[in-house]
Amino acid sequence: MTTRRSFLMCVAGVSANQLLALGPKAITNSWNVCDFGAKGDGLTLDTRAVQTAIDSCNAAGGGFVYFPTGGAFLIGTIYLKSHVTLHVDIGASIIGSMDRLQYGKNTGLSPYYPEEIDRCLIYAKGATNIGLAGDGKIVGKSSDSYVQVPGATGRDAEQRPMLIRLEECTQITISDLTMERCGSWCIHLKNSKDIFLRNLRINNDRQDGFDIDGCENTTISDCHLVCGDDCIAVMTSSPERPVRNLTISNCMMRSLCSGLRFGPLSKGNMEDITVSNCVIYDCDLGGIKLGMFEGAEIRNCVFDNIVMDRVTAPISMFVLTWPDIGSTDAHPKMMPVGKIHHIQFRGIRAVTKPGPPDPRPDQNSSMFFHGHPASAIEDILLTDIDVTIAGGGTVQQARRRDMIDADRIDYREDGGVWTDHKDSWGIPPGYGLYARHMKRLVLNNVSLSLAQADARSPLFFLDSQDVSITLLQAECAPEAAMVTVRNCSDLTLASTEPRTKTTLLRLEGENTSSVELVNNDSRRYSSLFECVDGANANIVKSN
Question: What are the tens digits of pLDDT across the range 312-340?
Fold first, then answer.
């Protein structure tokens, strides 16, 4: 154990106020890895010294294991233990070895995930009251390729170690650090609870930032994530372990994929979740994506006060059925149909990426809500929504009515679970929102603008019931309709306002019924409604 004097020397880069904030117990119960033989020169492998410091700290009842200023500590897998916090001082760094032999095989993600990301740099299982803190860095890899393991083949030969994985742990705090260049995911938390991720700077050009799997009571706040894949991924690998009581606030997210994604690993529920005061930007595969693929539920979630800039698909929701993720069967079973319900989106401002419409829903600029014929997406609220869409849709795309349905896609074809046939969806006939298999959908104070002209309707609904639209403002081509509905029932449009003179409502299909128009100024429209393809004008009540 360091003395008080040596501890003060090793944290010389920390201000007096920061040091005092740690408290007298932290000053007494502190272990400097250099006292256990760590060189910190970036060349010598310091794994054994660091692990000895962790073990000693744990055996003494816990405290802080310090990586002092100026050191670059090269390590393989280390195992964090109960009541131990790793503190990386300002100007210090922990660096992952590029030798795959230095990573333990007992840090387990396999077999449920098909990628070769079983190994990790910092691991704990079944620990309590653990943490990582400080103003220093944790760097996953110093070059772009790992040294091959002699004789390794298949999965073992392709391992890309994560930075941090914590399983079945409680009372986790990770704060203030910068994390860079991960081999795969940055922080993976599985089946754990009472978690705080605060003030973290993640720069992971390879894959995900935070992966939350089956965790409860998790707070993520004040983080900035720049990632090559999803910034924050929420998932459930076990039906018995839901994600519950998750809050995400005051975060900035930039991604080559999605800002925030739920699923596709979704065997357990994802519930009681709030996301607020966040900025999501420069995302190529969607801003907020909610996907239920394996038979559970996404429910009781609120997304509030979120700005998105240069993103595709600002909001998307899917209920689909995938083969069992992680199954080793040649033709894995299809999972049951799950549910998405009771979701609110409030105060969303989004600007989509420029470019023409794309056949992939997550690369298109439209919001895309798609339930399943056996499981409609239910009880959804969008209020105070302002979206600027790239536009560019053609008349032919506006007339399209052959969108494939969810139950007609077999995801076991052509390579298995990860071949998800996204191209087969095609460009939707609504530029702002395409919604299919919905029940009890409310849109209030929604504004849709276009960066370039688009021939499609702003809103398109198919096989949906109980849709209420109030205070809709939208740009719309004169030959299109503000809202197109096909085989829908119980639709209400109130106090709408077009930005160009057009038809308010286009009704299609003989199964369309029970439509009410309230307080829509007919002088602003060329016509209030039109009926085609078997729709009957008698179903419309107009005030």
Answer: 999 999 999 888 887 777 778 889 999 99
Q: How far apart are CA 325 and CA 335, in angstroms?
A: 9
- The mean predicted confidence, pLDDT, of the chain is 90
**pLDDT at residue 135, rounded to an integer:** 95
Task: Of 129, 232, 118, give the one whose Cα is nearest residue 183.
Answer: 118
Contact 170, 191 (CB under 8 A): no
Please give the torsion angle defined by the CA atoms of residues 261, 403, 440 and 519, in that order, rounded to the nearest 10 degrees: 120
137 vs 73: CA distance, rounded Å: 10
Alpha-carbon separation of residue 43 from 74, 94, 98, 326 (angstroms)? 7, 12, 11, 38
- Over residues 57-72, the mean pLDDT reads 96
Is residue 526 a contact partner of residue 505, using CB atoms and an 8 Å limit? Answer: no
Q: How far apart are CA 398 and CA 125, in angstroms?
A: 53
Contact assessment for residue 212 and residue 246, using Cβ atoms and an 8 Å cutoff: yes
Structure token digits, residue 68: 């002092």
Q: Is the peptide bond before 373 cis (omega within 30 degrees of 0)?
A: no
222 Cβ neighbours under 8 A, 6+ residues apart? 198, 199, 249, 250, 251
Cα–Cα distance measured from residue 386 to residue 444, given in angstroms and rounded to the nearest whole number: 11
DSSP 137-175: EEES-SSSSPBPPTT--HHHHT---EEEEEES-EEEEEE
| Number of residues assigned to the chain | 543
**439: Cα separation from own chain's centroid:** 24
Whose structure tokens read 């529920």? Answer: 269
Predicted structure pTM score: 0.91
Per-residue pLDDT band for 22 (boundaries 50, 70, 90) equals very low
DSSP string computed for 57-91: HHHTT-EEEEE-TT-EEEES-EE--TTEEEEE-TT
Q: What is the arithmetic mean of pLDDT over 92-111?
A: 86
Q: What is the pLDDT of residue 418?
A: 39
- Among candidate residues 54, 85, 50, 56, the one with its CA nearest the CA of residue 71: 50
DSSP state of 184: S
Q: Which amino acid is at 371?
A: G
